[in-house]
């Protein structure tokens, strides 16, 4: 059976780093604590999103001048981990800017 939920990993200002679309709820950001993720992954996702929130909008795609690649790398790893932990529960996609 295919998952009916769709979770998308993406940072956006002032939002949780996970977004959900499903048949029974409108699209929107979702608190990682409401999904069956490990506490360590939940914490890592929130930290990653906090780093995004702390940067200037003019620095889109960058946490600071030294680490944009590392921030994106961590985002891709987090998306992979979310995908693994939600396997069979939700289809997981990502957009790491």
Walk me through the structure.
With 97 residues, the protein is an alpha+beta fold. The chain is 35% helix and 22% strand. α1 (39-54) packs antiparallel against α2 (68-85). The longest helix is centred in the C-terminal third of the chain and has 18 residues, at 68-85. It is globular and about 40 Å long. The model has no long low-confidence stretch (mean pLDDT 87).
Helix/strand class: alpha+beta
Radius of gyration in whole Å, from Cα? 13 Å
Mean pLDDT: 87
Helix proportion range: 25-40%
The largest sheet, given as strand count, sense and whether it forms a barrel, is: 4 strands, mixed
Spatially, the strands of the biggest sheet line up as 3-2-1-4
What descriptive keywords fit this protein?
4-stranded mixed beta sheet; alpha+beta; 97 residues
Question: What secondary-structure arrangement, pairings included, does this model have?
Answer:
Blueprint: E1 5-9, E2 18-22, E3 25-30, H1 39-54, H2 68-85, E4 90-94
Helix pairs in contact: 1-2
Task: Write a brief caption for the model.
The protein is 35% helix and 22% strand. The protein has helices at 39-54, 68-85, and strands at 5-9, 18-22, 25-30, 90-94.
């Amino acid at each position: 059976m295919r998952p009916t939920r769709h979770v998308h990993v993406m940072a956006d200002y002032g939002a949780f780093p996970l977004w959900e679309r499903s048949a029974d709820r409108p699209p929107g950001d979702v608190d990682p604590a409401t999904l069956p993720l490990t506490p360590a992954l939940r914490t890592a996702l929130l930290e990653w999103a906090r780093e995004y929130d702390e940067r200037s909008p003019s620095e889109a795609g960058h946490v600071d001048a030294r680490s944009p690649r590392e921030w994106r790398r961590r985002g891709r790893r987090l998306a992979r981990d979310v995908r693994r932990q939600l396997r069979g529960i939700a289809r997981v996609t990502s957009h790491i800017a």
